[in-house]
Amino acid sequence: MDFVVLDTEGKPELSELAIVDSQGRLIYEGFSSDYPNHNKNLPNLKSLKTLLTEFLSLVQGKKIVCHYALHDIEILQSSFRRVGLFCPKLEFECTWEKAKSVWPELESHSLEHLSKHFNLQVNKRYFIRDMAHAARYDAQFTYQLYRQMMIEQLKQKPNPFSASRVDTPFQTHPDYFATYRQEYLTLESILADIKLDSNRQSKGVVVIGEPGTGKTHLMMRLANERLANNRLLFIRQPNHPKAVLHHIYSRILESLVQSVGSATQLDYLIINSFYKILGFRVTSQKDQEIIKALQDKNLDALGAEGTGRRRDYWQHIEKRINEWWAGHYSSGGFALAILKGIVKYCSYTDPRRKDITTRWLAANILSKEEAELVGLPNWGEDLSQEAFSLEAISVLAKLSILDEPLIIVFDQLEGLGLSHNREILLNFGEAIKEIFTHVPNSLIILNMFPDRWEQFQASFDNSIIGRVSQYQIYLHQPDETELEAILRVKLQALDIPLEILFSSEDLEDILGQKPIRGVLNRAADYYNYRVRQIPLASVKENLHKLDSKEQLEQQLRIVQQQQQKLTEAFLDLVQAIQEPGSSVDLTKLRQQFLPEPPKLQLHTSDNIIEYLTRKKAELEQQYSNLPIISDYDDMGKLKTIAEAFNHIKPIRLTQYRLGKRVLPEHLVVETGNKNYVMGFLQVDPSTSSFTSRITNFNELVSLHPHDRFGLFRDERLTEVKGKVGRERITQLNNSLNGKFKPFAKDDRIALDLTYQTIIDIQNRDLDVDLESVLKVFITYKEWHHWLFSMFEVGKSFAKAA
Fold it and tell me: What would the pLDDT profile of 264-318 be if each residue is shown by its tens digit?
């Protein structure tokens, strides 16, 4: 947006003009020596022709903003005619006309009235009538008015600074590429080294930075720049010690089914790899047709889904891939079965079949109907998911050798450093060691806080640390120039200059924050203040952050501003009283002399509710995208929540045993009066595992009549239809102290929202204390869920509130 603000004085010919640029700086002021009333000693006194020539050189190609532009246009045209100069066509915008449409309810739209109504200031002084009708003065206040108008038009637009954090690399946020450019190039260089290495050995990188410095943002840039070639896999913190590798593999699968353009990451990995495999030995016309379809990334050329032609092509592809695998790797273990599942996934276009195949690839046992629908054999109930997961990751990495190196990103790991997660931490270290040993052709990245990285180094042996930290990348706070550039990039979509939105004092405060997220959060606060009139923290709240000298200077500035405003209001009152027939608006007068006291910044609970509202909306939007659900993962979430409540009121967490018999994954919360037992049973209901586990659970219920038992199953999973399974459910529901319940949408969102909120606090992505968040969950009806009743902290919180 390139514009200048102009004011002219004189009638009918030009006597003076002033120009203010788009950043509010006076760039030109001139007086006409041809105007008869001017003092010959006046500075910037020039001939009318010179004034107009210099005016044209400054405004050419720019929009010219004026208040009551018709007056300025008439003066300019008259002056151009007088000196015999050609007046080109210029673009004008009138703030008087615009004000009438933006604020039609105001009694006047004069520059004076608008400046006073909106408390506009130039050089920290409010509008004074006696100083008006000087070109410089009016141009500067017109600039402030135009700024106010532009800000007014932002009220219906989202705050561009509110998205201050990147949750996953697959999101899209404005990115200033100069920030951490060298660090990004280092990552690309490591990827190139992996690809050029004849052994395709994986390499490890630790990206180290304080909370909010942009570690995940850097991963987002890596995704945006590299997803056309590489596959990026994003793994959040594991939460159960018995299923670390399966957790990693499940998150890898969820990443692979992320869309990249018109297909998923897994589609592209398969297409690119299979193209190379079939290209090694072309023996038939069928080979050529398949290669052509893969090269064009047009699998529809292989026939419509469900047709014999398509099945024939994909059976041929599977045969050729098995031959290639046998010639390069061992055919033992799960590898060929995994390859079969990958081929099936790629062969389907129907989303339901793709979803079923993805769950099969995650080692989930399917129902008989689902297995028949996708043409895959079911896994055995004795399958070791940990061993299977490691081999599956290895198969994907070996396929990637024919494509590009995998990028495996571990993020949100801070909770592993907590004492109750010690076993998970140690198992995570062993899992990483196994991945480096068995998974080739991968760049493995760990995003860490500096203090947590020190803890990891103390916890793991050198064989793990040495592999993980072959490279260490430190992210430091950018300088103010870069931070300002980041703010400008964020504003690009709104087409408004940074200087229009924020004053120099605003920017000084904003750019003085740390880290980058702190800068964006402060910019978001100022945006809400300037655009939506949501007050910032009161002066009193901010003073404790300043030293005594700064406190004194800030208080003095406030007193001076208030004194000037009161003086100007008093002079207006005197003038109004002296004018014949005048009337005084006492309500307005009271507002001038007794302004409303500043409101305080939003209470912490309001900020928490704003965060929860946004996260809940995201979870509701994602609910239909069925994730890979497992008992271990859900139980890990529940235990994380329970440990959080343990900080408020001590509770004991344990598990029941029933000899050597296998029970559903469950958690026992001992509260003193009664115990709450919550379990998950997400395995396929047609298996003997389902019936045996619910049978054992029912026996627990009868053995502990004073406890409350709940067994849950996600409502999106296969319905229980078997006779024995339904009988066991009825038996549980008929007991006095147990229930089998579908884990409904509200339950799932409550569990995931609570868990993610706690994880965000642990990772310092949400800058509030844990107790305040739990207080909101307990005391606010709209956020309370039956889940929290297990922890019996409602009364203590209600009393504290």
Answer: 899 888 889 988 988 888 878 888 989 998 888 888 888 888 899 999 999 999 9
Please say whether the beta carbons of 228 and 236 come within 8 A.
Answer: no
* Distance separating alpha carbons of residues 146 and 96, to the nearest angstrom: 10
* Helices vs strands, H then E, count in the chain: 32, 20
Of 800, 797, 767, 765, whose CA–CA distance to 784 is shortest? 797
In this predicted structure, the answer to whether residue 205 has a pLDDT above a threshold of 60 is: yes
Surface-to-core class of residue 447, CB atoms within 10 Å of its CB (0-12 exposed, 13-18 middle, 19+ buried): buried
Instruction: Give a yes or no: residue 200 inside a domain.
Output: yes
Please compute the mean of the pLDDT values over residues 202-219 and round it to a whole number. 95
CB 696 within 8 A of CB 661: yes
| Domains of the chain: total | 6
| pTM, rounded to two decimals | 0.82
- Quick one: which of 707, 676, 681, 677 has its CA closest to 694? 681
Q: Are residues 765 and 637 in the same domain?
A: yes
Flag whether 159 is in a domain.
Answer: no
Residue 89, CA distances (Å) to 16, 56, 64, 330, 420 in order: 21, 11, 11, 78, 74
Does 542 fall in a domain?
no
Q: Given this model, what pLDDT does residue 10 score?
A: 87
Query: For residues 668 and 654, what is the distance between their CA atoms, to the nearest angstrom?
Result: 5
Q: Find out whether 797 and 648 touch, Cβ atoms under 8 Å.
A: yes
**Residue 232, token pair as written in the block:** 């990026």
From the CA atom positions of the chain, what is the Rg in Å?
Answer: 34
DSSP state for residue 329 in the 8-state scheme:
S
Q: Report how far residue 410's alpha carbon sits from residue 443's, in angstroms, rounded to the nearest whole number.
A: 11
Tell me, yes or no, whether 323 and 455 share the same domain: no
Q: Look at the chain and count its residues.
A: 801
* Residue 518 pLDDT class (50, 70, 90 cuts): very high
Domain ranges, residue 37: 3-152
Q: Are residues 430 and 562 in the same domain?
A: no
pLDDT single digits (tens) 52-101: 999 999 999 999 999 999 999 999 999 999 999 998 899 999 999 999 99
Q: And the tokens for 45?
A: 């006194």
Residue 302 · residue 293 · CB < 8 Å: yes
Domain end point (choices 119, 152, 185) = 152
Give how far Cα 114 sits from Cα of 103, 105, 152, 350, 585, Å: 10, 12, 13, 61, 17
Instruction: Report the chain's terminal Cα–Cα distance, integer Å.
Output: 50
User: How far is the C-alpha of 367 from the C-alpha of 719, rounded, in Å?
Assistant: 10
Pair 174, 291 in one domain: no
The angle subtended at Cα 391 by Cα 385 and Cα 396, nearest 5°, is 120
- 631 & 776 share domain: yes
Residues 218 and 270 grouped into a single domain:
no
Task: Write the pLDDT tens digit of every residue in 569-609.
Answer: 555 555 555 555 555 554 554 455 444 444 333 456 777 88
